[in-house]
Please model this.
Amino acid sequence: MIVSKTPLRISFVGGGSDFQLFYQNSYGSVVSAAIDKYVYVLVNKRSDGLFRIGYSKTEFIKNIDNIEHDIIRESLRLLKIKGGLDITYIGDISIGHAGTGLGSSSALAIGVLNALYAFQKKKVSSHQLAEDACKIEIDILGRPIGKQDQYAVAYGGVNYIRFNPDESVSVRPIQLSEKIRNKLCSNLLMFNTGIDPKSSILLKEQKAKIKNNHEVLSGVVELSESLKNYLSNSNINYFGELLHKNWIFKKQFATKITNGVIDNY
Model:
């Protein structure tokens, strides 16, 4: 049996600039961090030639084309894997299309690909896993998302990630001392509001507004450059201020990014 473990992520600043419609004319960049919440994918060989896909439902399928789970179906197609396989996944936080804001869909894609490559006895780089996940989620499935999540969860750690007009992506790890890391951890809080973000609807609107929001997106890129420089110099004095500025920009991406309840929080 093969088990892959992929972290979820939090995005600090720069999110939104990872959409192709923006970075194709300049560049986009983000600062994000993997967290200690994970997606686990289990792969095991079957003797009956069938695919068994286990998640919130169970699929027993002979033909790949009939698999309902789109990420698993397209991962199997991409790696040209034939039948006789059991694939199951679970997460520390519920994984679904509603969206948690933690990159769970991309973490699942990376985890499935990683496990399937291992099943084929192939060792691939984090960069290759991220590229494959982007191909599946963006190019094949046509999801209205950017490239941040795939690279953030494939690499892990705290990173400055840059998206270039030629479609290349560079990942620069930001090394934090134990003291700075502990101080950040003790001053960051994350809450489950219980509100369904309907991320697919938000992202479609966000993508549609990219051309009109070019100045706003350029602003979040500047913030990512600033945060990268501060963190690289072990300076977190302006961390909260940069998060706040990023939030002000982000609220302009789509009409329902926030609501009265969240504003009160």
Remarks:
- The radius of gyration is 19 Å.
